[in-house]
């Protein structure tokens, strides 16, 4: 899914409610202290038994810090949906302009699956001034390649 010559960083984090795997890619060199302007991030959360609510509620909690308090004019798109396969989706696009930084457009495509207790968050971001070009050149082609296969934890699999 990563375009040729893009740079990549991966990490894993374990929290009481979920284990996260994170992969970020960008045409720019980046590090933990120097983040990219244009890039794509995938976050996969596998919910633990400590999380007693739904995967959809976990996704809402994940998204909230990004969008709470945004002026209405900066919320560019927000839609939800579901599939026959039990996958719930949230698509959220917003303008983020932290003080002292260049404004960026952030597009989040979030999928949840209750039976596998999983959340996938796919994020593409680029400077607002270059958004249309970067979205067409990188964001759309990358997101068109997204495909997930939920797997059930052994304790959740049907017994025969």
Principal-axis shape equals globular
List the total number of helices. Answer: 2
Helix content: 10-25%
The percentage of residues in β strands lies in 35-45%
- The radius of gyration computed from the alpha-carbon positions, rounded to a whole number of angstroms, is 16 Å
The helix/strand order is: EEEHEEEEH
Mean pLDDT: 89
Going by helix content, strand content and strand pairing, the class is alpha+beta
Biggest sheet features: 7 strands, antiparallel
Characterization of the model:
It is a single chain. With 160 residues, this protein is of the alpha+beta class. The chain contains 2 helices and 7 strands, in the order E-E-E-H-E-E-E-E-H. A hairpin with a 7-residue loop joins strand 5 and strand 6. The mean pLDDT is 89.
Write a compact overview of the structure shown.
It contains two helices and seven strands. It has 160 residues and is α+β, with helices and mostly antiparallel strands.
Question: Which key features would you list for this structure?
Answer:
160 residues; alpha+beta; 2 helices
């Amino acid at each position: 899914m990563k375009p040729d010559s893009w740079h990549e960083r991966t990490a894993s984090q374990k929290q009481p409610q979920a284990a996260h795997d994170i992969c970020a890619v960008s045409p720019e060199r980046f590090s933990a202290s120097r983040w990219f302007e244009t890039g794509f991030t995938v976050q996969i959360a596998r919910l633990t038994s400590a999380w007693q609510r739904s995967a959809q509620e976990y996704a809402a909690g994940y998204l909230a810090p990004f969008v709470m308090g945004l002026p209405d004019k900066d919320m560019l798109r927000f839609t939800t949906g579901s599939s026959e396969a039990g996958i719930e989706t949230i698509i959220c696009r917003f303008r983020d302009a932290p003080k002292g930084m260049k404004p960026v457009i952030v597009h989040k495509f979030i999928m949840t699956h209750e039976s596998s207790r999983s959340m996938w968050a796919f994020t593409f971001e680029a400077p607002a001034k270059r958004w249309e070009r970067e979205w067409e050149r990188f964001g759309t082609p990358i997101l068109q390649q997204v495909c997930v296969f939920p797997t059930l934890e052994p304790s959740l699999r049907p017994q025969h």
